[in-house]
Here is the input.
Amino acid sequence: MKAVILAGGEATRLRPLTCNTPKMMVPVLNRPFLEHLVRYLKGHRIVDVVLAVGKLSGQLHDYLGDGSRLGVSIACSEEPFPMGTAGAVKNAESLLDDSFLVFNGDIFTDIDLTAMIRAHRQNRAMATLALTPVEDPTIYGVVETDDRGRVTRFSEKPRREEVTTNVINAGIYILEPAVLSYIKPDAFSMFERDVFPQLLEKGHAIHGYQSSEYWIDIGTPDKYLRLQHDLLRRSVCDGGTVIATESSLHPSARIEGPVMIGRACSLEANCTIKGPAVLGAGCRVEEEAVVEGAMIWQDCTIGRGARLRNCLVASSCSVGEESEVLDGCILGDEVLIGRRNKLSNGIRIWPGRSIQPDTISF
Ligand code: GTP
Here is the structure.
C-alpha cells in the first residue's frame, strides 16, 4: 500500500525551531523526524511513499534523494499553494491508483498499521480512521462511533460541555481511491471538515480503528520535548547513556541517564548532563555547566557554569557563562546568549538574535 505523508504545513507553533528547518527534519534523538516515520512505515511493509509538500525544501530534498538510502521509494507532490490535508492528497491523485494510506507528517506512534489495513479490508470500508484516546479532546477532532466501530459523527475542537468521548482522529487514514472524487481539485480542503462529513452524508462506510498504543504529534514544543523524553526513557536502556564516536568526556563530567550524546561532543570538567537529555553532534559543554532535561541540536556551546533545564536549543547556539535557559524556553538557530542572563517562562528567541551580557532576567 502506498502512503501519502502530509508535510506541507506551516509549522508555526514549533517556531523558532522551524524557522530554518521543516517540521519533518527536526531532530528526534539526533535523527530527522522523517527518518523515524519512514522506518515505522517500513516496519509495516509500506515502502512506497508520496511526500505532499508545499515547496520541497533543499534540506528535505538533500536528505531524501529518491528514498533508496532509507530503503523506500519516495515521490514528491508539490502544491502551488497550501491546499489543506485533503486538497494535498487530491493534488497527488496521479500518483495513487489503489487503496492508500494518509499520514499526518508530525505523528509518532506505535499504532499497528498492519492490523489497521487488515480491518479496513475486512470491513470493506470506504475510509478507515485511526482513533486514539487523549486526556483533553477539546483541542482535537473528536470522532464518535457506534458499537460496530462505524463512525457516526465528527466534531472539531468541541467545547468541554459538548464532549461525548475522548477518542480523537489520530491523523492516519486508509482510503479507497473513490474518496478522491469527493475532493475538489485545485482548491483548499480538509478531510475532517470537508470530506469525511460528506462521505457520512452519502452513507459510505467510515470505520474507526481504535488503538491505545503510543501516539503523539510533535506540533507544539512541549510535545516535541515530551516525545524525546519518552523515547529516551524507553530506548536508552536502564537509564543508560548512548555516546557517539569521537566525543570526549572529562573524567569528572557527570552523566545521569537516559542521555544521548552525538558525535564529536566535548564535555568538560565537572559539567553535569542529567537525563532525559540529548546533545546533537559537535556540542561543547564547558566546566561546571549543567544540562538537565534539555534537547540541544548540533554545534552548540554551553558556557562555563551555565544551566539549561527542560528547554529546546536549535543548531549553532551559544549560551554564555553562568547564563540560565530554563523551562520551556526555545532558542532558534545561531542565537547567542551573553553571560549572566536568565531566560525562563517559555521565552522564544528568534534565529540569529544576540542577547548582550547581563540584560535579561526573566
Ligand atoms: P501549525 O502551523 O503549527 O498549526 O502546524 P502545521 O502547519 O503543520 O499544521 P497541522 O499541525 O495542523 O498539520 C498537520 C499535518 O498536516 C502536518 O504534518 C502538516 O505538515 C500537514 N499539513 C497541514 N496543512 C497542509 C497543507 O496545506 N498541505 C500539505 N501537504 N500538508 C499539510
In short: The longest strand covers residues 167-175. DSSP finds six helices and 33 strands in the chain. The chain has a mean pLDDT of 94.
